[in-house]
Write a structure and sequence with these properties.
The chain is an alpha/beta fold.
Length: 179
Amino acid sequence: MSKLNQLNYEVMISEEEIGQILDTVAAKINQDYADVDNLLLVGLLKGSVVVMSDLARRLTGDVHFDFMTASSYHGGTESSGDVKIVMDLANSIRGRHVMLVEDIIDTGRTLSKVRELLLSREPASLKICTFLDKPSRRVVDVPVDYVGREIPDEFVIGYGLDYAESYRQLPYIAKVNPA
Ligand code: IMP
Ligand code: MG
């Protein structure tokens, strides 16, 4: 993969560690949702696809999938304040137990906007699960129920996370070093 050679990066969270993190998060979710008939996992495209598929396969209860696309990025490494819903959910969430699944929370702008929108549709419950969290970058406060790993203020790629749409398929999380 030639594009990989053009980037100076180092592994921050290995594939094995990712598995361990997900085991821990899934165990909590399985416990918390033991009495819930069905959980609707809502993934924010595109970054959450990888973590959602790995997380879902560790969940023991019945789950459904839905997806939405919220856009706040313009291909670079800095979030803009403007969040748009580019693609909405396929189905109603009224009365459903919903868990938003995110790859990473940075400023919190995306998630806070999506959370407000979903809450206005009156789900039975709404929780948030993120694989990575950069708490030092938070601009908008948003309640997060399950966090895989907190990381410092670094730009990371892999495991769903992109840099200008590339590198999402890396099986690990890597930190990008400034050129
Ligand atoms: P927020 O609205 O600032 O919280 O941005 C959240 C979104 O920004 C995530 O879903 C990612 O798509 C993107 N993002 C934030 N930090 C990173 C990063 O370090 N690498 C890649 N994408 C990131
Ligand atoms: Mg992104």
